[in-house]
TrEMBL record:
Subcellular location per the Swiss-Prot or TrEMBL entry: Mitochondrion
Signal peptide: none
Database matches in InterPro entries: Mba1, mtLSU_mL45
Main location: mitochondrion
Organism: Oleoguttula mirabilis
Superkingdom to which the source organism belongs: Eukaryota
Protein name: Uncharacterized protein
A GO term from the CC aspect: mitochondrial inner membrane
Single GO biological process annotation from the record: protein insertion into mitochondrial inner membrane from matrix
Keywords on record: Mitochondrion, Transit peptide
Length: 291
């Protein structure tokens, strides 16, 4: 990534007509439903840590209460925004699909990782948000020639579960009706699985008839051929993985798009809560007028 460019101390006067034109173009794009699919992780997304990562009620009662209080506040906000999204703000009424989201996320994750490992994302490109898609393409492009990966999901160690569900509607434009709304819904799904990743090298050989054939061989990190694992067998280097997959569907002019993969998120830590609370309290300070 490049370095951030710091603004200069002098204020640059913008052309009023140009600024007005740009603002009008943005409004027109929003009204037409032309909003990007990659809007970032929605603010106040809260992911409760797993048991071993949570502050203990016994050794850190204050920290645990702070986290639980934050969770209750965020969950109430999520519930209210979801009710408003489902019943009042959008027409026709959108679908929530909360029960089916874990299965949708599970299937999308499996497709994406399998295709990414093989080096061909084309079949699922339309279901991956722009930012993540660009990152995956770049990583594929950095692979040595005639190499690939083989990703295998051996089993789920627990049932996929929705960890967060947030609906957001973009600020209304002048004259906008409930049938012209734009926004997005994001759900975070916890996926706990056992998976493995093997390096594969494509080797050209000749068969008995002299014809050239390409076969794939499993290699180690040094590129040396190793014996493949038998079908159904779990390799020794299989790893337990807990991922918080973020799936998103866009709302453009009150029409819902398909669920897409935005990326992954991290558990909410006590340190993050403290930073956010400190920021909120500093923004809430109001300077007293001079007497």
């Amino acid at each position: 990534m490049g370095r951030a460019i710091k603004p200069s101390g002098k204020k640059k006067q913008s052309n009023p007509s140009l600024a007005v034109a740009v603002a009008q173009q943005q409004k027109t794009a929003i009204r037409a439903g032309q909003i990007p699919d990659d809007i970032g992780l929605l603010p106040d997304t809260f992911i409760m840590p797993r048991g071993k990562n949570r502050p203990s009620w016994f050794s850190n009662f204050g920290g645990r209460w702070r986290m639980e209080r934050k969770r209750m506040r965020i969950r109430m906000q999520e519930l209210l925004s979801t009710i408003m999204y489902r019943f009042f703000m959008v027409r026709p009424r959108p679908r929530l699909q909360i029960r089916s989201i874990p299965g949708i996320a599970k299937d999308l994750q499996k497709q994406m990782y399998t295709l990414f490992a093989s080096g061909n994302l084309a079949p699922i490109e339309s279901r991956i948000c722009e930012g993540l898609l660009g990152s995956l393409r770049s990583r594929i492009g950095q692979r040595p020639p005639n190499t690939a990966l083989r990703w295998t999901l051996h089993k789920y160690l627990s049932r996929p579960k929705v960890a967060s569900y947030r609906a957001a509607i973009m600020p209304a434009q002048k004259g906008e009706t409930s049938s012209e709304k734009n926004g997005a819904v994001q759900a975070v799904v916890r996926i706990h699985s056992l998976q493995s990743l093997q390096h594969v090298k494509r080797v050209s050989t000749r068969d008995a008839a002299g014809h050239i054939a390409v076969r794939e061989v499993v290699v180690d990190a040094q590129g040396r051929e190793v014996a493949p694992v038998a079908e159904g067998e779990v390799p020794k280097d299989a790893k337990e993985s807990v991922e918080y997959l973020v799936v998103q569907k866009s709302l453009r002019r009150s029409r819902e798009g398909p669920w897409m993969i935005w990326g992954t998120a991290e558990e909410t830590t006590l340190e993050k809560i403290r930073r956010e609370d400190k920021k909120d309290s500093s923004q809430g300070l109001v300077a007293k007028p001079a007497s």
